[in-house]
Amino acid sequence: MPVSKATSIANSNIAAIKYWGNRDHTLRLPVTGSLSMNLDGLPTRTTVAFDPSLTADVVVLGGDIQSPESSKRVSDHLDRVRARAGIKTFARVDSQNNFPAGTGIASSASGFAALTLAACTAAGLALSERDLSILARQGSGSASRSIPTGFVEWQMGANSDGSDSFAFSIAAPDHWALADCIAIVSHTHKEVGSTGGHALAHTSPLQPARIDDTPRRLHACREALLARNFPAFAEIVEEDSTIMHAIMMTSRPPLYYWLPPTLAIMEAVRKWRAEGLPACFTIDAGPNVHVITFAEHMAEVSNRLRAISGVQNVLTARPGGGATLIHE
Ligand code: DP6
């Protein structure tokens, strides 16, 4: 086999209804569905080249060659692609993010979505969007949602082999002129990342109640989104984020991701909304705060966030497309 190469680009995404907890950790089968918006302008670009002269996978992230330990998750994902394509060839993976890693922004979502599409293409597989989403899910759950375009729902599925646990688009990026203003309050790497957190979720006595209530929240969020009803959307998005953090804080051991500026932003955003500025917060497994607003208020919200003590930077993104191939 000659060197066979492909490049893909995928956006990160922010969940309005969160994924937290698996029923199968190996296959990354979630205990609930989730719903998200792809973030335009926060992408990962990944080139995969299967090369018969290699004796092991080589993983380069942001120009740095990774150790075998830190390459393992990527290599394991390449193994899934190789098994599916019936090949044994090792690959060189070259990946670049255009946003800071380890800041609570879901870099694994864009990373594994781009890796999946580039690796499958380079391996000669032509998979459907559904099958790409299923495969991306096994690398990182949230990556399943970075395959389809725009506003995306990941259905948890019922099958034990994961064949019906995939994400699909429920609206195009131009369905709603929203914007995400991401207030960075810390750049330090989190101690317990999402993978470790998912494994602890079931230890919270509150998780069964969260799971039982998720169909209601998913329905409310989907309806608000499709009807472009911002007040309803804002309420359910904040509620869902806070329920997830209640699980985190009541896990054994507990996970506290919020820092004092996190809480200051939450308080400010609720006040702005009460005063008439359409904005709501949602927080992933880290202290940074995503503030969702309308595109027309993006500059105003960013300026207000920058004025809050402890906010180091504000990144902005609009609703984005799905994973795509780059033809070089
Ligand atoms: C809090 O998809 O990052 O961002 O499957 O272990 O890679 P792994 O977890 P990941 O979990 C995302 C958790 C979250 C909520 C969300 O994006 O839905």
Summarize, please.
The protein is of the alpha+beta class and 328 residues long. The chain has helices at 68-85, 107-122, 129-139, 194-200, 207-226, 230-249, 260-274, 298-306; strands at 4-17, 22-24, 29-30, 34-50, 58-61, 64-65, 91-97, 151-154, 167-171, 178-184, 279-282, 289-294, 313-319, 324-326.
Task: Name the structural class.
Answer: alpha+beta
Q: How is the main sheet built? A: 12 strands, mixed
Name the ligand types.
Answer: ligand DP6
- Rounded to the nearest angstrom, the radius of gyration is 19 Å
Work out the helix count. 8
The helicity comes to: 25-40%
Number of strands: 14
- Model regions low in confidence, pLDDT < 50 over at least 5 residues: none
> How would you describe the shape?
globular
Measured by DSSP, the beta-strand proportion falls in 25-35%
**Ends apart, CA distance between termini:** 21 Å
Secondary-structure element string:
EEEEEEHEHHEEEHHHHEEHEE
Average pLDDT, all residues: 96
Helix/strand layout:
Blueprint: E1 4-17, E2 22-24, E3 29-30, E4 34-50, E5 58-61, E6 64-65, H1 68-85, E7 91-97, H2 107-122, H3 129-139, E8 151-154, E9 167-171, E10 178-184, H4 194-200, H5 207-226, H6 230-249, H7 260-274, E11 279-282, E12 289-294, H8 298-306, E13 313-319, E14 324-326
Parallel strand pairs: 5-7
Antiparallel strand pairs: 1-4, 1-14, 2-3, 4-7, 4-8, 4-13, 5-6, 8-9, 10-12, 10-13, 11-12
This protein binds ligand DP6.
